[in-house]
Each structure stands twice: as C-alpha cells, then as structure tokens.
Design goal:
The complex is a heterotrimer. Chain A is α/β, with parallel strands linked by helices. Helices cover 39% and strands 14% of the residues of chain A. Chain A has a five-stranded parallel sheet with strand order 7-6-5-8-9. In chain C, the strands form four sheets. In chain C, strands 1, 2, 3, 4, 5, 17, 18 and 19 form an eight-stranded mixed sheet that branches. A six-stranded parallel sheet of chain C has the order 9-10-11-14-15-16, with helices on both faces. The chains are: A alpha/beta, B alpha/beta, C alpha/beta. Chains A and C meet through helix 5 of A and helix 5 of C.
Chain lengths: 320, 167, 434
C-alpha cells in the first residue's frame, strides 16, 4: 500500500523526487526558483557545464513521445555533467512486452541514478518512486492529465522574472484545462505562491465547474476571463477533443477562445502571454500575438532548461 | 565561545600591507563569497586598483554535494573581466581544509585560463586536507575541529570574527 | 457428528432472537435451539462462552475465478477464505472464463464446490450468451443446473430491446435478474467524477451514469414486472431512486459493497491501486447516504464484492490496474465496524449479511429458503461463532485468499471468527492462540 506521507519529501522535508507541485510547500518552490536563477547565469558562460551530477546516470523514460521535453531534460542533465540515456518506450510496445515495474527494475540494475518519466497514465511516477531503490530519484516529465511539474515551475519562473510579486497578480489560464497536466501544475503552483486571482477560461466541456475546488474562478466567457489579467497562459488544443465530442471544430474554438490582439487588449497593457508549446497558430493563439511584444513564449524555453537543472541538482543532492 | 581574541581590523591592516608586494600591473582581485568578497571589495578600494574586483562562489564545484545537497542561492559568481591570461589574486577570510579553494579554482577555470592564481587569506587555521597553500596570511592559529570561524561585517563596514560551534 | 455449541449469545436476525443459550446440531441440522436437553449426547462440545453464535454469513457477491483459474487452485483457496470469514453461503457472478452460460459449466462448478465441503455455492447464470448482450441463455436449464438468478456482471447491456426481452423471459419463470446500474457510455471512468478526480487527472464516472441506468431499469421493471436485484449501488442520487421505486412497490432489491460502505475517493491517496474498484469510491455525501440506507433497509444487503486480483495487475498506474479487492474474510468485521460506528442495532447489522441476502435470492433457493440465513430448529446448521469485541488487524499476507489487495490493509477491525459450521461440519476453526 502506498504510504500516506508525501513521497516527494524525505523525513527532513527535503525534495527527493519531483512528482507533483501539489503538496510542495512554498519554501521548496522558492528554493527551486532561486536555484534556477543560478543556472540561468551558468547557461550564459562559455563553459556551460558544472560537475554536480558527474558520474550519475539519468535515464529519460518516455512512454509518451515528446522530442521537445526530452531534449530539454537531456540538455539540462548534460550541463550538470550527467550521463544521459534516452529510452523511447511507446506505450504499445510496453503493453506487448515488459510491465512498467519490470522496466524500472531492469534499468535500476544498470545503475540508473535518476529517472525522468513521461507516461500517459496519471500517477505512473508515484508507482515508480514507490518501487525504485532509495538512492534513485524520479522526476515527473508529465503523467497523463495529472501534473507536469517542471513546466509549472518554469512557468512560475517566467512570471517571477517579468512580474516579481506573485501576491498582486491576476492570472488567466485559457483552453483545454480538464485534460491539461500543465494547467494543474500551474494552478497548484500559483495558489501555493499566493496568487490572489486565478481564472480558468474555456467552454464547459473543457473547463468543468468542479475545477473551482482547486481554487480557481471558472469563466466560460473569454472576455470576462481575460479582463485586466497580468498573465495569460494559453494551452494547446489537441485534435482528440474534436473527435471526443467536446468541441465542434478548431475554427469555432478560435472564435470564442482564441487569443487575438483585440482580446489581448482587454488585459493589462503590460500583460505577458505564455504558452507551454508547441503552439497551434490560428487555433488557440493568433500569430500576431505569438510573435508579438507581449509574448514570452521563447524565454519560457530558456528558463525551462535552467529550471530542470535546478530540479535535478536539488533532488540528486538529497537523500531518501 | 573561544577565549581567542582576534582583532579583525588589525589583521586586515596586515593583510593590506602583505598583499601590496604581490600585485602586478594587471592583477585582478577575486574574493571568495562571502567573507573573501568583503575583503576583496575593501582591498580594491584601499589599493586603488583599476577596474572592478570579482566575486566567486564554490557552490557549483563543491566536493560535498552528495551529502550536503544543493544550497540555496548559489548565484554569487560575478567576474566582470576576461580571466584568460590574467594574474588572479584570490582572497578569502579563513583557510582551513583547502576544499573551498579547490572548488573555486575549478569554477575559475570554467571562465578561462588565468596566467597565475595566488592566494591571500586573513586567517590560516591549519588543518589542510589538500595540498593548498596561501602566499600570505595575516594570522596563523589553531582551533578545535568543532569550531567554525568566519568573518562578519557590521553596517558601518567594520570587520570582526564570528566563532560558532558547528552542529 | 453431533455438536453442542454451548453458552453463546444466540442471535438470529430473522426472528429477532438475542439471548444466551445452546445450539444442538446433528446430521447437519439444528436439533436444539436455546434450551437443549441434557440427553443430547454431543460428540463435540464447542464452548461459546462470551462469543456470539449467529447464522453463517451469506455473501451475495464473491468471485472465485473458476472456471478459468483452476491451475491456481482458486476455488480451494477462495472457499477456504469464505469459511475463514464466517461465510457459509456465497453467490458468484457469471463473469468467469468461460462465462457461466452453459448448464454443464454450472454443474461442474457446483460439483467441485460441493466436494470441497466448505461453503454452499449458488452461482448466477449469464443473462445472455458470453455476456454479449445479444442472445438469451437457456435460463430454465441453467436454473435446473443450480443457478439462483441471472446477471450481466459488469458488462452493460446497451440494447434496451434485448434487456426488455430478457426481463420478460425471466419474469415468465419468476427468475431474478441481477443488474449493475451503470450506463455503458457515461460509466467508463476509473474514479468517481468530482473535485478529487479532476485534481488527480483521473477520468471520472458521474453519478448520472448510475441514475440513468436505474431509471431505464425501473421503466423496464414497471413494464415487465420482472424481479430485479440491483448490484453495488454507489451514489446518494441512485439510492434515492431506489427508495422511490420500492415505495412504489416495484419488485426490486439492492446491495452495496463493503468498499462503498466505508471508503470515499479521498482514500485513493497517492494513486493507490488497491483503491481501484468498481463501482468507484464516491464522496462523503454518497457514503453517508449508503450507510443510512443500509441501516433503514432501503439497501437490503451488504456484500463483500470479493474479487481477487493478481499482484501484477495491481502494480500498474491507477487507470491501468485491474479493479477489484479481496473481501470474503472482511465481510463480517466490516459489517460489525459499520454497526458500531453508526450505532446500528446488532440484529440489523447481522441481518444485512445473513437473513436479508437470503431474501434477495428468494424462491430460487427452494426449500432451503425457509432456513437459510437463520438459526431455526430443523434448519440447516450453517453457523458462525465469533468474538464481537475481539479486534484484529487486517494483514494482507495473512489472508487465506490469493487476492492480497484490500483497501483495508492495516485497519483494525472488530469481530474475530472462531468457528464456522457448514451443514453441521466444522469447516473452519481459528487457531487456539487467536
């Protein structure tokens, strides 16, 4: 039976796995963001490497394909001097062959020190963390619809970079929130860091009422949701939503919930526009906005490497 | 809690005098964060050195990362000059095992290849665990292993010493 | 063998009897109840001082995995688990491998169970061939082979025309159809829809999946007057519909599992696959409604919903794990725990797992119905002797069942079974030190 103690923290309250933003106290989040700042400056040096994870093996275990995320984790691990092994295990071959835990056991026998895991099922990283050896650390690179904690953290880093004080902000998250692990991580991080107004914007099929229990204001009207926002986080709309009878078409979605320059004008004049990527131009976001002066989508990617370096170095340095 | 009475200001005066002959025209001062950085800042002023002094942190190259973990706020290295080909004078408050110096030199090498690295410290308390030596030290003392010695600075900028029992 | 169960607190929920007395058993039947004559020459005397002597438990839902898992000796281990839990009669659903849709399979199962000389087994037959929801099974032949009712197990029968006809056919012969009310399309999530499922990113089953299915079933019952037993209610809204249907006089009964009786979705914790069960664990409001309805009889019976799952099928991410939990050895204790927590009279607590389940099975038991699930002179000697106040800790490794996954692992529960008698045979006896 899984223990009731938060499996991410050791007995001293130090981070040993990063599985979810939920349950992490505010000081832990700030520690990660502060450390990310250090690595940002390292990434500006000639020699972009530090030896913190030298001799350690980081296994990228991607049961769900994602070249982008996997690449940023690989870069981050290599800049920490770790050895990186990439395993792309598409779900169908795992179903035909080894069970998840057998895969983990085999890799552990190859002296893996850290697993970066992306899986299509919510909760998979918890199962892994429960079953791997005490010295092995697990980073959740996205589990089903549940969490994408490093994305949440880099989103927070971005917001802190441009806006400084979380306690005075209005943040709007727009799009397919019910299926979004990024949204869940963002919402937990924003509430922990003290953001007073978080709005979840989208149609009822994608933004259900019971999201309010997470501490957000549900808005089905985009104009109401965007008004006077300091930060707008646009989420990717996936094609499966149309086939799942949740939306009629991408065009209709863009009409009501796409971020155009006109809608952006309803937010504060210095509002920043964020997106976890990859963006669907003309579906959730207009090209003019994506490429415009208020967009911080590309800086998010840069911050993402520093944040992942921070997470990996912090957990690797803490013992179970 | 030691009965030792160290006058930091007096020792600084000795350090200042001792450092002068070590300098070349293009030597840059680099202080090890945090005590060394304060010393470097004051030395830079008192020696009327051109340009700016540098600050360097050992955090990213520490050899005890696996046991002590990632310390918060390690972003202190700031070297506003080109390291390549320069004589570097490293300044620190207390020289003990030598591990911090080793880590700092590794950090320095991430930025380039210095012409030379010389070490000046306020207090050398012996107990070296690596083959590292200071060119000059204002004082040589011995302290029990359990005691931690570090430099403190008040609001007016006056130096004093802090001695703590380490946990 | 003649057995005297001496000095225990005899409780018979059917008659309301509750008093210290003796029980005399001979040739598999109860021959003396309460005051037993001194002339009764017992071969064995069981000292029941300080213990409760109750009818053997009747569990309306226990999966034994046979046919299908003969090589694992499942029938043997799970029947042993039953009597270890004081269960003397159990009803198993037809979702075996192959499905129980042929009289030969039913006969074989009954034969094997009979030879084990442990608990009585009453199988449910499949309502449709292979549970596919298309062709009706030979219900009369299956009944002759020993089936006490017909069921679709967890497989939703989407075609209302087929369901209507199945109920009509069953009504012809007075058979009871056991249905789990769960809409085929809305009912596909892995957790209960709500704030927790949303937060954890798990697909949710809304309560309307149950109420829509119930509404359909009630309409069909009104039209056919077929007897229906509703399996594993889970929602407050569903219970409300059942209450109204019963008030209206529809021939329906229902049960609830030990999991839904005690747990909520919060117990999922950090994606604990032991909590992956069907129906999914719902919220506090639903649990409260279930407890109240079981107490007042709106819900007739409490079942274990015993479903042993292989460890490999639980060591998976929550949504991929196979649903099910072991329960035969916990039914009595969890019934008692509920009774104690909610101050429910012991007669009702025990009635929900003895007398009431027999009422659900109804006429299908034939002459047995008169004495099954009760302690009555002349009736079959199915008896459970247990220590009410003796508490024990649920330790999965120590369970007799091959299913080691239970949401109640580590729980301390009341009620320790000391002796289980089936047809006058001591089928289980707790070790002396316990």
């Amino acid at each position: 039976m899984l223990s009731r103690r938060n499996p991410q923290l050791n007995a001293h309250g130090e981070l040993i796995h990063l599985l979810s933003i939920e349950g992490l106290p505010r000081p832990v989040l700030h520690h990660i963001l502060d450390t990310a700042g250090t690595f940002l400056s390292v990434n500006d040096r000639e020699v972009k490497k530090v030896p913190l994870l030298r001799g350690k093996s980081v296994f990228n275990l991607f049961f769900e394909n994602s070249t982008r995320t996997r690449t940023t984790f690989e870069i981050a691990a290599k800049r920490l001097s770790a050895d990186v092994i990439n395993l792309d295990i598409a779900r169908s071959s795992a179903a035909k062959g080894e069970s998840l835990l057998d895969t983990i056991a085999n890799l552990s026998a190859m002296h893996a020190d850290m697993f970066v895991v992306r899986h299509s099922e919510s909760g998979a990283p918890y199962l892994i963390a429960q079953h791997c050896a005490p010295h092995v650390h697990v980073v959740n690179a996205g589990d089903g619809r549940h969490q994408h904690p490093t994305q949440g953290l880099l989103d927070m880093y971005t917001i802190r970079h441009y806006k400084q004080d979380f306690t005075k902000l209005t943040v709007a998250i727009v799009g397919d929130i019910v299926h979004s692990r990024v949204a869940r991580s963002d919402i937990h991080a924003l509430t922990t860091l003290g953001v007073p107004e978080i709005r979840a914007v989208g149609p009822k099929t994608l933004v259900p009422g019971d999201l309010a229990a997470m501490g957000v204001r549900v808005c089905h009207d985009m104009k109401e949701g965007i008004k006077d926002a300091d930060v707008i986080i646009m989420l990717r709309l996936q094609n499966e939503r149309m086939s799942g009878a949740m939306l009629p078409s991408a065009a209709e979605f863009f009409k009501s919930y796409g971020l155009t320059p006109e809608k952006l004008a309803l937010a504060k004049p210095d509002a920043i526009v964020m997106h976890p990527g990859p963006i669907n131009r003309g579906v959730e976001i207009d090209s003019d906005v994506a490429d415009g002066s208020q967009s911080v989508i590309l800086p998010q990617v840069t911050f993402g490497i520093a944040v992942r370096m921070a997470v990996m170095s912090i957990i690797a340095g803490n013992n179970a | 809690m030691s009965s030792l009475n160290l006058d930091a200001e007096a020792l600084y005066a000795d350090l200042l005098a001792g450092v002068r002959p070590l300098l070349q025209a293009d030597t840059v001062l680099v202080g090890i964060w945090s005590g060394g950085a304060w010393l470097a800042e004051r030395l830079q002023r008192d020696l009327s050195r051109p340009g700016e002094h540098g600050v360097i942190s050992s955090a990213l190259h520490r050899d005890d990362f696996n046991s002590r973990g990632m310390t918060a706020g390690a972003d202190h290295t700031k070297l506003p000059f080109d390291v390549n080909g320069k004589p570097i004078l490293l300044v620190d408050d207390v020289l003990y095992t030598g591990r911090t110096i080793r880590a700092v030199i590794n950090e320095l090498y991430d930025f380039g290849r210095p012409a030379s690295v010389t070490l000046a410290v306020l207090v050398d308390r012996g107990g070296r665990e690596l083959p590292i030596a200071a060119a000059i030290s204002a004082a040589r003392i011995t302290l029990p292993k359990a005691q931690r010695l570090s430099l403190a600075k008040d609001d007016a900028g006056n130096f004093s010493f802090d001695i703590k029992e380490s946990s | 063998m003649k057995i005297l169960v001496k000095g225990g607190r005899l409780i018979d929920p059917a008659s309301g009897h509750d008093g210290i007395g003796d029980l005399a058993i001979a040739a598999g039947r109860i021959v003396g109840f309460g005051q037993v004559s001194n002339e009764f020459d017992a071969d064995r005397v069981i000292d029941a001082t300080g213990l409760i002597v109750a009818p053997g438990l009747v569990d309306l839902a226990a999966r034994l995995r046979e046919p299908g898992h003969e090589h694992e000796g499942m029938l043997e281990s799970e029947m042993a688990a039953a009597v270890a839990g004081g269960v003397t009669s159990l009803v198993c659903p037809p979702d075996t491998e192959p499905v129980l849709d042929e009289p030969g399979l039913v006969q074989m199962l009954k034969f094997r169970a009979h030879n084990l000389n442990l608990a009585h087994l009453y199988p449910l037959g499949a309502l449709t061939r292979d549970l596919k929801g298309e062709v009706l099974t030979a219900m009369a032949e299956l009944t002759e082979a020993g089936c006490v009712g017909f069921s679709q197990a967890e497989v939703a029968l989407k075609d209302t025309l087929v369901l209507h006809r199945a109920l009509q056919y069953a009504a012809t012969f007075g058979y009871t159809t056991w249905l789990r009310p769960n809409d085929a399309w809305l009912g596909n999530g892995v957790a209960a829809k709500g704030a927790l499922a949303t937060r954890m990113g798990l697909s949710g089953v809304p309560a309307i999946a149950e109420t829509i299915a119930l509404a359909t079933i009630f309409e069909l019952v009104r039209d056919t007057q077929a007897r229906v037993h509703l399996c594993r209610l889970s929602s407050a809204a569903g219970i409300e519909l059942v209450r109204r249907a019963k008030a209206e006089g529809l021939p329906v009964t229902c049960d609830v599992s030990i999991n839904s009786l005690h747990l909520t979705d919060l117990d999922i914790g950090y994606f604990d696959a032991a909590m992956r069960v069907t129906p999914p664990l719902r919220q506090q409001r639903d649990r409260a409604a279930i407890r109240a309805a079981l107490a007042d009889g709106t819900i007739d019976a409490l079942v274990s919903d015993h479903t042993p799952v292989d460890a490999d099928m639980k060591n998976l991410p929550f949504a991929e794990a196979e649903p099910g939990a072991t329960g035969l050895e916990l039914l009595l204790s969890l019934a008692l725990k509920w009774g104690q927590d909610d101050a429910v009279p012991l007669l009702r607590t025990l009635g929900a797992v003895t007398h009431a389940p027999i009422g659900v099975i109804g006429d299908a038991l034939g002459s047995l119905a008169a004495s099954a699930g009760r302690l009555v002179e002349g009736g079959v000697a199915d008896v459970c002797v247990f220590g009410l106040d003796e508490r024990w800790q649920v330790t999965p490794a120590a369970l007799q069942s091959q299913g080691k996954h239970t949401p109640f692992a580590g729980y301390e529960v009341p009620g320790r079974v000391k002796y289980t008698l089936v047809a006058g045979n001591v089928a289980f006896e707790a070790a002396a030190d316990k």
